[in-house]
Amino acid sequence: MKKLALALGLAGSMAMTLCVTSSPTSATATVQPGWCGWTPANNSNILARVYVGPVNIRTGQGTDCNVISQAQEGDWVWLHCQVINGGGERWFYLWDSANGKTGWVKAGAVERPFDPRTC
Q1: Which of 13, 17, 40, 105 could form a disulfide with 119 if both were Cys (CB 3.0 to 4.6 A apart)?
Q2: What are the sequence ranges of the domains in the chain?
Q3: How far is CA 14 from CA 5, 7, 8, 9, 19, in A?
């Protein structure tokens, strides 16, 4: 546990002390790469279904990006577009009709009639 004390001088003889106590927590802040959060303009409007779930919906096309929701097995999704990331993985930008979330999902979890256009 760390303690930090800060004395603030105010007008006259009045003074205020601020004490902040911090202790380690199990959750750590996630700093994601700058390319996370990209919203592409392309929209293929392909109706597809999640067949491996739950699957994470992320802010970007990689596992370094934050998880914003999960799509469940059987959820119907609208595919907007696809990219191949720097690791050679195919990711879809989609909207999950079951939870209303839009984000990125690894392509292998989605059953589709054909691939969407490139973002």
Answers
A1: 40
A2: 46-111
A3: 17, 11, 9, 7, 17
Return the CATH number of 46-111, one of 2.40.50.100, 2.30.30.40, 3.40.50.720, 3.30.565.10.
Answer: 2.30.30.40
Give φ, ψ of 28 to 5 degrees: -120, 145
Q: State residue 17 phi and psi, 5-degree precision.
A: -115, 135
Among 109, 100, 104, 47, CA closest to 73: 109
d(CA 97, CA 116): 17
Q: What pLDDT digit, counting tens, does each position of 36-91 carry?
A: 988 898 889 999 999 998 999 999 999 999 999 999 999 999 999 999 999 999 99
Percentage of the chain exceeding pLDDT 70 = 75
- Give the C-alpha separation, 61 to 65, whole Å: 7
Tokens 């930008």 label which residue?
A: 93
**What pLDDT is stored for residue 35 in this prediction?**
82
